[in-house]
Design goal:
The protein is built from six helices and twelve strands. With 165 residues, the chain is α+β, with helices and mostly antiparallel strands. It folds into three domains: 43 residues, Double Stranded RNA Binding Domain; 40 residues, Double Stranded RNA Binding Domain; 74 residues, Double Stranded RNA Binding Domain (2-Layer Sandwich). Belongs to the krueppel C2H2-type zinc-finger protein family.
Length: 165
């Protein structure tokens, strides 16, 4: 067995240990030639190849029920649940169910009160990362949405949409 010197985890072969060590070293030897984004592995899901589809626009996974297409097979699997009605991720505390595991995790925070995303400028905390990002715009003054009819700028997409009606 091959053992990691940092966390004592054991592996049956050297190549798996080498790949594992990248967790500790943060080494990302596989780089996108378009944007230089790095990846720690180039096996199994072929992360780099999938990432490169964001640049090429290639979407080889086509839904057989509608015109949607995806760059990643997993995204098509999740999309297909819209057509089948399948919601495999069920809350153990209420009757809610979701098509994605991440949606259940966010929902469970409503029951637990967990707010893992904390503002480093004030004491506010949030259950979802997107809400922290929106909140941070209060501190930074960032307003990324500009009206194409006038010079007004907005911090939230919903605000510019209201303005443009």
């Amino acid at each position: 067995p091959y053992q990691c010197s940092q966390c004592e985890k054991a592996f049956s072969d050297d190549s798996t240990l080498i790949r594992h060590r990248r967790i500790h070293t943060r080494e990302k030897p596989y780089q996108c030639s378009q944007c230089n984004k790095g990846f720690s592995r180039n096996t199994n899901k072929n992360d780099l190849l999938i990432h490169q589809r964001t640049h090429t626009g290639e979407k080889p996974y086509q839904c057989s029920q509608c015109d949607k297409a995806y760059s990643h097979k997993g995204h098509l699997i999740i999309h297909n649940r819209i057509h089948t009605g399948e919601k495999p991720y069920e809350c153990s505390q209420c009757d809610k169910a979701y098509i994605q595991k991440g949606h259940l995790i966010i929902h469970n925070r409503m029951h637990t009160g967990e707010k893992p995303y904390q503002c480093n400028q004030c004491e506010k905390a949030f259950s979802q990362k997107c809400n922290l990002i929106l909140h941070m715009r209060i501190h930074t003054g960032e307003k990324p949405y500009q009206c194409n009819q006038c010079d007004k700028v907005f911090a939230r997409k919903s605000d510019i949409l209201k303005h443009q009606r």
